[in-house]
Amino acid sequence: MALKTEKPPEASVASPVANTTVLELALYKIYTWGPNTYEQGKPYRFKNSDAMILLSEQDLGRPVWRIHRPEKPKQVVKAEIVDATMINAPIPVDSLGEPLSPVGKLPPKRIDVGNDTEIADILNRPDDSSGDVTV
After folding, report:
1. In a domain, 53, yes or no
2. N or C: less crowded end of the chain, CB within 10 Å?
3. Domain for residue 134, yes or no?
């Protein structure tokens, strides 16, 4: 004969998140409280009683801890792509009607630098209020 055994009522398991608060350092980059060292920018979960004590800590009137509020992801506006595959771009031509090639036919870039006498002449001009100096 089998004995009927009743199952004990299931105890509600408390969530590890219940009765806790997530804090982050607000003032220091590295902070030691008790035997633990904490770093700025990292969220830490504390019991509510410890969190209240930590939130009341101040250094020269400034709070050491603050409640961690995760950043909301920024909504990026997606660029709308317009289909322009049906457009045919004309080949650029010169005044004689010959096609211009953008590679190889451009004149070389050049910077003209004056000699020492030209530069000295510009720098040692007497300051007259007749107008602007054009170089």
Report:
1. yes
2. N
3. no
Which pTM does this prediction carry?
0.43
Nearest Cα neighbor of 63 from 25, 16, 17 is: 25
- Report the run of H or E that residue 45 belongs to, with start and end: strand 44-47
Q: Is the residue at 82 inside a domain? A: no
Q: How many domains does the chain have?
A: 1
Which tokens hold the place of 76?
A: 């990026």
Q: Which domain covers residue 38, as residue numbers? A: 20-67
Helix (H) or strand (E) holding 44: strand 44-47
Q: Nearest-CA neighbor of 55 among 17, 29, 28, 24?
A: 24
Instruction: From 34, 66, 31, 71, select the one nearest 51 (Cα to Cα).
Output: 66
- The per-residue pLDDT for range 15-67, each reduced to its tens digit, is 667 788 899 988 889 988 778 888 988 898 988 888 888 888 888 888 898 99
**Tokens (6 digits) for 65:** 């801890």
CA torsion 114→120→121→122, rounded to 10°? 70
